[in-house]
Amino acid sequence: MSTKSHSLVMLRRNSKHIARNPTSVFNAVLMPIVIMLMFVYMFGDAFEVGVDYIDYATPGLMLLAVCYGLGSTATAVNSDMTKGIINRFKVMDVSRGAVLTGHVVASVLTNLVAIAALIGVAFLLGFNPAASLLDWLGVVGMIVLLGFAAGWLTVALGLSAKSPETAGLAAVPLVMLPFFSSAIVPAEKMGPGLREFAQYQPFTPIIETLRGFLDGTPSAGDVIPALAWCVGIALVGYLWARSTFKKRA
Amino acid sequence: MTNSAIAVSGLRKAYKDKVVLDGIDFEVRAGTVFSLLGPNGAGKTTTVNVLTTLMKADGGTVRVAGHDAATEAKAIRAAIGVTGQFAAVDELLTGQENLQLMVDLSRVPAKDGQRVVTDLLERFELTESAGKPASTYSGGMRRKLDLAMTLVGNPRIIFLDEPTTGLDPRSRHTMWSIIRGLVADGVTIFLTTQYLEEADQLADRVAVLDQGRLVAQGTPDELKRQIPGTHIRLRFTTVAELDAAARVLTDATPDPEALTLRVPGDGGTKSLRALLDRLDEHSLSAEECSVHTPDLDDVFLALTGHTTEAAK
Hints:
The structure holds 2 protein chains of 2 kinds.
Chain A: H1 3-20, H2 22-43, H3 53-82, H4 85-91, H5 96-124, H6 133-160, H7 164-170, H8 172-176, H9 194-200, H10 203-215, H11 220-247
Chain B: E1 4-15, E2 18-29, E3 33-37, H1 44-51, E4 59-64, E5 67-68, H2 73-79, E6 80-83, H3 95-105, H4 110-123, H5 139-151, E7 157-161, H6 169-184, E8 188-193, H7 196-202, E9 205-210, E10 213-218, H8 220-225, E11 231-235, H9 239-248, E12 253-255, E13 260-264, H10 269-281, E14 288-292, H11 296-304
Parallel strand pairs in B: 3-8, 3-9, 6-7, 7-8
Antiparallel strand pairs in B: 1-2, 1-4, 4-5, 9-10, 11-13, 11-14, 12-13
């Protein structure tokens, strides 16, 4: 059997998991929407961002939506590891990549569903992007790339963690990181120290890239670092996941 | 070579500087049940992990189904089935879906898949619960599903790592009869257990593993012969009574903690009557009297100097 068909079997399995686990759906799809409503209605007027707050915040919340999906991916990977399911697959000679690829692809698909829902709600709240069709493709491309990068890193975290609980916790920094970026408020408005951190952390160029595409004004100065970060994170995550998968029995 | 399903020699494995397997040798003939017996932490699961290609040995040679574990792991994986220590079933999938997953991942032709799944569900009496998620299954049902999943693809060598740990006595007996059924089909079984009775019940050969070394191997009967024979156990209510009895029965071994006295004897009515008469003569009476035939627990004590409990 080829890697490809094994990956499809795994993807089907992971999709069933997501569909049957309401908590993970809540976390991945509803939580970002709840946060969006909260920021737009409760805090939005308090922030001076120069444009409609919904237009400012949507790109950042898209990234947040990617991150919220990660916790359940980490937990799912870890429970496969600790419950012996991965060992079972290993002994069956299931292609090494298939188990992990299945998790990553399922994670990316969850991200896309969550973001589609989020954008739908954003439009209801008056979101008014200036993006052309090409820009939208850029948005989707950026999200998928980010999803893959974060997905591989999360799979590695999930494989390394001792228990599903710690795996869930390990993903928390990824969920928190968007708050310390330009997702919610511009980095210039933050205090010293935090401002520098927000400016140079990987999520900021990614958010600015999304923002650029949605405004119809993508800038290479954001896109290039964003791509570089994603490729770097994906590579680290992939290599780490692969070596942990091999070692841990 | 043709007759040996598993051949292990000089197997060594260490985690960092902790030696887990310190050079073990054994051979399992095709179509037999081999049981690796030992307390928690003896190295049983590590042995299974190395034999099933999940881990690489640090030293020694391992051949399974005629293939070298160091170089032909893939060929071994095609020949074996493994049921790990914890029922590795997918809890969010139903019993039927779990089996279908195994079919999809195995070499079973797609057209036979449905039949294989139905047959296994029936054989393991899981047909009724086939449509329910495995998370709703009892411990015994999970183990059965786990084993059924292992049997997809019809492996000729099956590894069972503590297949009955945590099961109630009834489920344990069900599991035993399933294992006996497999043996009747000619499958070779490598079984680890910490239950001496289990090895005694199922195994053709038993190897006793203690702290990474094999301290004995042979048939259950051979092992039983290595230890003191049948004895009679008398239990008293007070230490004073125990002491008094120990003074009368000089060849007996007292155990002050358990208030018992171990008297050598063959368990026949004649020697038993003689013993009871002697107690009567001295106006002694035991609260309980039992004839104890040696089991593997005694073997373990005799071989390692500690009981299985003490090693935990």
